[in-house]
Amino acid sequence: MNVLVAILGLALLILIHEAGHFFAARAVGMRPRKFYIGFPPAILKTTRKGIEYGLGVIPLGGYVKIPGMHRPAPSDLDVHFGPALYEEPRLLGDVERVKRLVSANAFDEARPALATLEQALGSASLTPKARRAADRGLAELGDALGTDAYWRQRTWKRLAVIAAGPGTNLAFAIVLLACVYMLGIPSDASRKVQDVVPGSPAAAAGLKPGDTIFGINGNATYTFDDVRNSIRDSNGKPLQLLVLRPGQPPIPLKAVKPTKQDGVYTLGFHPAGIRYKHYNPAQAFGLAAQDTWLVTKAMGTWLGHIANGSGRKEVSTPVGIVQQSSKAVQFGFREYLQVLAIISLSLGLLNLLPLLPLDGGHIAFSIVEGIRGRAVQRSVYERVSAVGIALVLLLFFVGLSNDIGNIRGG
Asked: Do residues 210 and 193 lie in contact, with contact meaning Cβ atoms separated by under 8 Å?
């Protein structure tokens, strides 16, 4: 059940991301062609005002189709209409006319030429495979030649549509974190020790009832969650507690190894009753914004470590994300909302990297085209996309190997 909740949470974040693109496109006059909850093929679908709304068979996230993401190229006609030309050579004249107009950037003249080609295809005798390819080509080229095509829009409109996806994730993260602050976070008292189990590692370290755990292995602990997570994530390595006792300076205790009980590492003490501190909406959103900035800076540091190879073990994939989210579900809904907020923030920030096919890559190319005053050649897009896809796949496989190692306990 916890894994299912974690998967649904990740799917929700992807859906929110796509919804950001969808509503921004509609707001600036780019009518999306499709919006799905889940991924196609469709279980249910309906068309309203030229937009196909559907429920996809793959219930993970969402899908939005914005028309004409790329400038049409003559090679598009070879790809889409090649099978039809092989079966009906008489279509060559109509196809070549559209190709010449596209090659000459005469896009307004290419639209009626494409309509003529569509009529010719309607009377042609084609196999189902060739017919599907031709119909797909007519739809794709029709969208790319339309006045609402993405590539034909002013720079600010393209930037607004693309940035809306990661921007929605960032905003959602702030809202989630603000909700956590309003619901209440553990106060300092939650780090206070109520009792120590006799004969436990905590007793051997010298921990006493009434102590407040101030740090572990040199890292500050602000809440009991910090204390608990440091112990559980220790993998059995020695832990040195820094505690506060009334009227005394911070006291470093003897380092001890935690013991494993029911698959979880523990030191053998119980916290005092956890109290929660609640914040009003203004305070909550202010603190959420601060947390968002801190995570953003940490993400920049992480990317620097990835670049020099030292952060390899920190890369993860949806497999690891679901694994960590399901653990957070076990701890409680506050912890789960916090983890979900961090994932949403990370999803938004990573999508802003200037790599195609990520949103940041489209933003970068839109800015370059706006400065140049003309479109970048399709071949440049394809070469840069190949590099970007290779880098994304490399990160994915590194993350997957980390996730498999973590599942196996390695």
From this structure: yes
User: Left (φ > 0), alpha (ψ -120 to 50) or beta: where does 105 sit?
Assistant: left
Residue 326 and residue 7: Cα distance in Å, rounded?
8
Cα dist. 273→59, 186, 206 in Å? 40, 10, 21
Residues 6+ apart with CB under 8 A from 293: none
Average pLDDT over residues 220-230: 84
CA–CA distance, 371 with 348 (Å, rounded to integer)? 25
All structural domains of the chain with their residue ranges: 74-147, 186-277, 281-408
pLDDT given for residue 399 in this prediction: 61
Cα–chain center distance at 231: 29
H or E segment to which residue 216 belongs: strand 212-216
59: nearest Cα among 109, 135, 7, 1:
7
One-letter amino acid at 60 equals L
Topology of the domain comprising 186-277: Pdz3 Domain (2.30.42)
User: Could you tell me if residue 251 is left (phi over 0), alpha (psi between -120 and 50 degrees) or otherwise beta?
Assistant: beta
Q: Annotate 328-365 with b (16+ C-beta within 10 A) or e (fewer).
A: bbeeeebbbbbbbbbbbbbbbbbbbbebbebbbbbbbb
Separation CA 378–CA 405 (nearest Å) = 40
CA distance 200 to 273: 21
pLDDT digits (tens, 9 = 90+) for 367-405: 998 898 887 887 788 888 888 888 877 776 666 566 555
| Core vs surface per residue 35-68: b (16+ CB within 10 A) or e | bbbbbbebeeeeeeeebbebebeeeebbbbbbbb
